[in-house]
Amino acid sequence: MLLCTFIRTDDADVNYRAQLIGAWTLRHWHMQYSNRSEILYPFGENPQGLLIYSDDGWMNASICRADRQFLPVDIHPKHMAPEHPAAAFASFFQYAGPFRVNGDTVIHKVSLSLNPNLVGTQQVRQMEFSEGCLHLRGIEEANSETRTHTLEWIRASTD
User: Do residues 51 and 60 touch, judged by C-beta distance below 8 A?
Assistant: First the structure.
């Protein structure tokens, strides 16, 4: 897996919002807790994802496991055994809403999400750019522990 190299630039010279606009595909996502040394991969080591920032201030993030199981095709989703939609839910992450940029931070105001508990929250991410790559870092408290999500995105291609 080719990972991007961080290049620091003077914040005063960077227009972060302009650099964000467009579509990005996920290259890497890992998570680490402050009191543990292990690195976790929430959706496996090769997740798939699409992140879109529009010029009019909206964003959408969708991430899934690369090895998602198909739902049964001969049963309507309303009539499936509960484990089928539960597995689909557990292997997919999505939220959308308006965003704003404050220096090297992007704030997502969640107005729509697969997980209803995220609606109304603000997801704060630190940004760093390198050649063609966007690195986002989110820090949150979970069960009295601090965890850091690190995601690496590259410009999406229509090819």
Answer: yes
Token pair of 104 as six digits: 């090297």
Residue among 105, 148, 109 at smallest CA distance from 128: 105
How many folded domains does the chain comprise? 1
Beta bridge partners of 25: 50, 154
Report yes or no on 3 lying in a domain: no
- What is the pLDDT, as a whole number, of residue 109? 98
CB atoms closer than 10 angstroms to residue 21: 14
Q: For residue 96, what are the contacts with CB-CB under 8 A and spacing of at least 6?
A: 58, 59, 60, 61, 110, 111, 112, 113
> Which CATH number belongs to the domain containing residue 47 in this structure?
2.40.128
**pLDDT tens sequence across 63-78:** 999 999 999 899 998 8
Task: Please state the pTM of the whole predicted model.
Answer: 0.86
Say yes or no to pLDDT of 25 above 90: yes
